Task: structure prediction
Amino acid sequence: MPKRSRRYRAALDRIEADTLYPAPAAIELLKEIGGAAYDPTVDTVIRLGVDTRQADQMVRGAVSLPHGIGRTVKVAVVTGGEKAAQARDAGADLVGGEELVEELGAGKHLDGLGAVIATPDMMGKLGRYGKVLGPRNLMPNPKSGTVTMDVAKAVSEIKAGRVEFRADRNGNVHAVIGKLSFTAEQLLDNYAALLDELVRLRPSSAKGRYLRSAGVSTSTSPGVPIDTSAPVRATAEA
Result:
């Protein structure tokens, strides 16, 4: 087990054992304990009651967070012709056709790359590199809006703070919801937007409790557990 820093242990001591916090309280606590010498990213992990071995229970999608994620995402667009020009005008970092496909398949440009968008006609070529792009969650998919003819819109949305998500084999969804420097209200807004989209995508075949557990953390802090049975928003005072 890795040795934890004094800061990490002090933060862990602030989290009450066996306690699930309402989302607003969890985020407030994280802002108090999650500090570092830099402005760390705030992540959430939400465990869903799904069996992703069943094709009809795979949960995958994308959501535009109201306050973005606090950093600019590097985007590649695989297309040609007029669509290539539209992608460049929208701010895509890398744009190309078959040559870019080969480069991505060889592992080039992948460091720091946040999303790959492709027009449908390019997916036959790009699909050969699923083993390279898939593990990095970079393979374009219609459900996440990254296989599209409207490449300009897709680039703009991702640059503005749209995040993609996919339940892993244990039903966990990992996503960035901002930076620690965001206000608690901004982080809560982003968390709520993600949660709303996950609930909207609930598979009809998923039985029992759907939102099993959740938590928020930074790269330098322990996770603060969230009570998924409690309202995301605190009730208004009378």
